[in-house]
Design brief:
Helix content is 34%, strand content 16%. It has 4 helices and 4 strands; from the N terminus they run H-E-E-H-E-H-E-H. The longest helix has 18 residues.
């Protein structure tokens, strides 16, 4: 059962609020990420954007949360950055995997492939990279 908030009971108002949150995030907040470029097995490259917890929280050796963005997003979207910040505040290191062609990494080489939802092989390579 879904109950919308009292201040945005309709889908159009909810979409407007997300748009306003995106604008606020891009104008008023600095990026929380530190970037790592991961080399894939076929020669491609994708960006991994990390948000690490504070030093006292990081000492617990908790698992890394790998976040996969939506169809028309990347790590700069407010949804991904807010979720990564919140996970890091709770002590969990978070990394956003930007798919091929997203996140500002140039993909104009011989290994460039495009798909709406990403490739399983890319996720395998990223998980191996994160595990190191």
């Amino acid at each position: 059962l879904y109950w919308p908030t009292w201040y945005a009971p309709q889908a159009l108002l909810q979409l407007l609020l997300v748009g306003l949150k995106e604008v606020r995030s891009r104008l008023l907040q600095r990026s929380p990420y530190s970037r790592e470029v991961c080399a894939l097995r076929d020669g491609g490259r994708i960006a991994l954007d990390w948000v690490l917890p504070e030093a006292d929280l990081a000492a617990k050796m908790l698992p890394v949360c790998v976040l996969l963005h939506g169809a028309f997003m990347d790590s700069a979207s407010v949804t991904m950055s807010d979720l990564a910040r919140d996970l890091a505040a709770r002590g969990l290191p978070a990394v956003v995997m930007n798919r091929r062609g997203y996140g500002g990494v140039d993909g104009c080489d011989e290994s460039f492939r495009v798909t709406m939802f990403g490739f399983d092989e890319d996720l395998d390579d990223v998980l191996a990279c994160v595990g190191r």
